[in-house]
Design brief:
Elements: E1 3-6, E2 14-18, H1 20-26, E3 34-38, H2 49-59, E4 65-74, H3 81-98, E5 102-107, H4 110-126, E6 134-136, H5 143-151, E7 155-158, H6 164-181, E8 190-191, H7 200-211, H8 215-221
Helix pairs in contact: 1-2, 2-3, 5-6
This protein binds zinc ion (ZN).
Length: 234
């Protein structure tokens, strides 16, 4: 079992979301199976965002930092979208420099997100390298939107608030792909608690119920250490 995105640790291996300052305070005190994600949340983007992102540079090279984020775009809350885009672009550049996946918060700004992804993949293509994976965390979109995101190579992570039909579609797309290609290289989705006060065990149980599969199957499918982290161990 693995909690892909959380703001509190429990007894499960996880990626704990932190600001750069939090990371420096907590890195030596958390269990060995706690990895970190460091970034500037779009709600916290303000006039001094450059200073905050600058702090990320040295911290994100730490081997304990596995992902960059959560960062992204939010049209409902936070500073002007144009400022959020600038701060997000700066963090994309950091993720590419340190070669780590991104954990993305996106609310009502999926067109802008896809445009930025396209810009990045084109740039990487010109430079002859692959772009780092982007995972949209807490995805609550409908099946059509999930399909659109996956078609552009984006990955999804679900907390307990997912759309059940979306979960079923994502799982069936994965199953079809693995039937054709053998074991698919990429995990179908990840599971997380985000900042909700319960255990990721409950999310695994809920997903297992909705998909009609054993939790043990989800344990391997939803473990990012088997996929985007290339067998990375704690
Ligand atoms: Zn979060």
């Amino acid at each position: 079992m693995f909690n892909f995105h959380t703001h509190h640790t429990d007894d499960v291996p996880c990626i704990l979301n932190c600001s750069p300052d939090d990371f420096l305070l907590r890195q030596d005190h958390e269990r060995a199976d706690v990895a970190f994600s460091v970034g500037l949340h779009p709600w916290n983007v303000s006039a001094d965002w450059q200073e905050k992102v600058e702090k990320m540079r040295s911290v994100t090279t730490s081997p304990r930092v596995w992902t960059i984020g959560e960062c992204g775009l939010d049209k409902v809350r936070g500073d002007a979208l144009s400022v959020q885009i600038e701060a997000f672009r700066a963090q994309i550049a950091i993720a590419e420099a340190v070669k780590k996946p991104m954990v993305i918060h996106c609310v009502k700004a999926f067109d802008e997100l896809l445009a930025l992804r396209k810009e990045l993949t084109e740039q990487c293509h010109r430079e002859g390298r692959a772009a780092q994976p982007w995972v949209i965390h807490g995805f609550r979109g409908k099946p059509e939107q999930a399909k659109q995101m996956m078609a552009k190579g984006l990955l999804l992570s679900f907390c307990h608030l997912y759309h059940v039909e979306t979960l079923r579609l994502v799982f069936s797309l994965y199953k079809n792909a693995s039937a054709e290609e053998g074991r698919s290289r990429v995990s179908p989705f990840f599971l997380e608690t985000d900042d909700h006060p319960f255990s990721v065990h409950q999310i695994y149980e809920q997903v297992s119920h909705h998909l009609g599969v054993d939790v043990s199957l989800l344990d391997s499918l939803c473990d990012p250490r088997q996929t985007i982290f290339h067998q990375k161990a704690f």
